[in-house]
Amino acid sequence: MTRGVGATPHDKGSPAVRVEGLYVGRFAPSPTGPLHAGSLVAALASWLDARAHNGRWLVRIEDVDQPRCVPGADTFILQQLATCGLHPDAPPQWQSARSSLYQRALDQLVAQGDAYPCACSRKDIEDAHAAQGHARERHAALPYPGTCRHGLHGRTGRSWRFNVTDFKPKQPIALVDHAWSATYSVADGMLQWRDRRLGRQQQQVANAVGDFVLRRADGLWAYQLAVVVDDADQGITDVVRGEDLADNTPRQILLQQALGVPTPRYLHTPLVCGDNGEKLSKQNGAQALELQNPVVALSQAALALGLPAVANLHNICIPDALAQWVAAWRRNYNGPP
Ligand code: GLU
């Protein structure tokens, strides 16, 4: 980690570490296929937000879930971004090269008593819920019932989990920005935070997801741990990403707090739905972006973000179109004047 918490006293009682004027944003695609119309919305939004704040924009290839990665998809995504005029301000990073950072974070959590080994398979978790008479909603992830929280009882640990249930933060959440808000109440386990687009959000993490996985039984790092470690290590001040990830944010804020790294500001962008009304995603077969005319693809993404159409769509060059959307974004999302 390159940043610590609490370096600057917060006049309202909680630590904040934002260096005034500093903005670092990122786009973090998983290379499970090419960008589609939905992922371009998140890419464009994070780029526009960084430009609107005169900040830096980074790209991180999230390839920790190797079995789901498609060979060559990372290079293809980087080419698609370049074709759209979205150029990162530093060379992209690959999560697969960063295991030692994730291991160090896990070691820290274990040493603090915030993580424990778990022997349960998915079937064990389902059986534990069935034994308690819980009905399973279709597609709903089952909260971890806590079987291994206080010991393996002779079983062999397969994965590592974050102990949300017993987590007692030692200090208020360290925010990158005084104007930003996120709080955790130990009394009822409620994590509240304010999304820049969705407004006030809340989740009782222990009830909603339970003690979540940091390192999987197959040895792969879980998204929650990798994303928190990388956002902190890369000094990310602003996370702009698709709304389907909004309910992951409370888990990430708790991990940031446990690791003693600051919580960025969050903005979750609207999702693009296909003709069947379902969110476009690689899993449900979204088409790769048609980039014969990148301004047209960008303009559809801009429209999904509620930005005005540019005049002369078929004659405008990409930098001019992007500049118009930066100005519009600044008006909508409080960038500097
Ligand atoms: N890698 C994730 C995805 O492609 C995005 C993670 C994030 O932005 O936090 O869905």
What features would you highlight for this structure?
ATP binding; aminoacyl-trna synthetase; three-stranded antiparallel beta sheet; 337 residues; alpha/beta; 2 domains; globular; metal-binding; nucleotide-binding; binds glutamic acid; Rossmann fold
Tell me about this structure.
Its cofactor is Zn(2+). A motif ('HIGH' region) lies at residues 29-39. This is Glutamyl-Q tRNA(Asp) synthetase. InterPro entries: Glu-Q_tRNA(Asp)_Synthase, Glu/Gln-tRNA-synth, Glu/Gln-tRNA-synth_Ib_cat-dom, GluQ/Sye, Rossmann-like_a/b/a_fold. The chain has 337 residues and is α/β, with parallel strands linked by helices. The chain has 2 domains: 1-96 and 272-337, Rossmann fold (3-Layer(aba) Sandwich); 100-225, Glutamyl-tRNA Synthetase, Domain 3 (Glutamyl-tRNA Synthetase, domain 3, Alpha-Beta Complex), CATH 3.90.800. It has helices at residues 37-52, 73-83, 99-112, 122-131, 205-208, 223-233, 249-259, 294-304, 318-332; strands at 24-27, 56-61, 93-94, 115-118, 159-162, 182-185, 190-195, 199-204, 213-215, 238-242, 265-269. Strands 3-2-1-10-11 form a 5-stranded parallel sheet. Helix 1 (37-52) crosses helix 9 (318-332). The model is unreliable at 1-13 (pLDDT under 50). It binds glutamic acid. The site of glutamic acid (GLU) has 7 residues, from loops.
